[in-house]
Amino acid sequence: MTFTKSEFKNPATTTLLELVKSRRTYYGLKAESPISDNAIERIVQDSVLHVPSSFNTQTSRVVLLLKEEHEKVWDIAISAMEGLVAAGHVPKEQFETATKPKLNAFRAAYGTVLFFVDYESLAPIKEKFAIYADKFDPFALESNAMSQYLVWLALESEGFGANLQHYSPLIDEQITKTWNLPASWKLDAQLVFGAPTSDAGEKTFAPVEDRFKVFGKSA
């Protein structure tokens, strides 16, 4: 795989790209934090404020849960999966040997960031720009994904390990009820983070030449 060598004007660009390269998925986590809760809150808050959104619609909604509040998320997920087992939708052996240990591993971490999209807030912009009405929901998800990535990157930069999960719609109703959240907030993803207890798995790449093209480049 061939990579372009270059010099950046701003040293922060190199730092940013090194963070991008080092970000990994960590599943082995424990309930410890290398930074203060206020610092974690600042990371999440800044992402809510500064990540761009289409037409500045600002549709992302984010909830930060730490310690015991974080554990509640995964208690909800375990309970939801137990309901599927009881209903015969999930084999009990699969739940006991694979799913439950995985959920308990998430529960053992320090915190969870819940990422939501408020699609109802898009009603005025959809009416104003009717020709693009069917595009605004995907645009909102794209903005939300940027928030997820920024928080993940910043937390890892501060010494956390993290992994991104998607347990909707199984946990949605109970999540909304437990923290008394607006019904218009639709859960999209859950970012689990804590102090890493093991290395991340090997990261592999498809050839970049098959996924990237450049035209008009100066010699």
Question: Characteristics of this structure?
Answer:
7 helices, alpha+beta, about 220 residues
Provide structural commentary:
By secondary structure, the chain is an alpha+beta fold. The chain has a domain at 32-67 and 109-197: NADH Oxidase. 44% of the residues lie in helices and 16% in strands. The protein is built from seven helices and five strands; from the N terminus they run αβαβααβααβαβ. Strands 1, 2, 3, 4 and 5 form a five-stranded antiparallel β-sheet that branches. α2 packs antiparallel against α6 and α3 (67-86) packs antiparallel against α4. It is globular, with a radius of gyration of 20 Å. The model has no long low-confidence stretch (mean pLDDT 95). Belongs to the nitroreductase family. One of its GO terms (molecular function) is oxidoreductase activity. Residues 20-194 form the Nitroreductase domain. Pfam families: Nitroreductase. One of its GO terms (cellular component) is cytoplasm.
Summarize the structure.
It is found in: Cytoplasm; Nucleus. The protein is an alpha+beta fold and 219 residues long.
Topology:
Layout (H helix, E strand, L loop, with lengths): L10 H12 L6 E2 L6 H14 L9 E7 H20 L5 H16 L3 E8 L4 H6 L7 H22 L3 E5 L6 H7 L6 E12 L23
Antiparallel strand pairs: 1-5, 2-3, 3-5, 4-5
Q: How would you classify the helix and strand content by structural class?
A: alpha+beta
Strand content: 15-25%
Please tally the β strands and state the result.
Answer: 5
Helical proportion? 40-55%
Radius of gyration: 20 Å
The CATH homologous superfamily of the domain at 32-67 and 109-197 is named NADH Oxidase
Q: What distance lies between the first and last C-alpha atoms, to the nearest angstrom? A: 20 Å
Describe the sheet with the most strands. 5 strands, antiparallel
Helical region count?
7
User: Which parts are unreliable, with pLDDT below 50 for 5 consecutive residues or more?
Assistant: none
The second-level CATH architecture of the domain at 32-67 and 109-197 is: 3-Layer(aba) Sandwich
CATH class of the domain at 32-67 and 109-197: Alpha Beta
Average of per-residue pLDDT values:
95
Element-level helix/strand string: HEHEHHEHHEHE
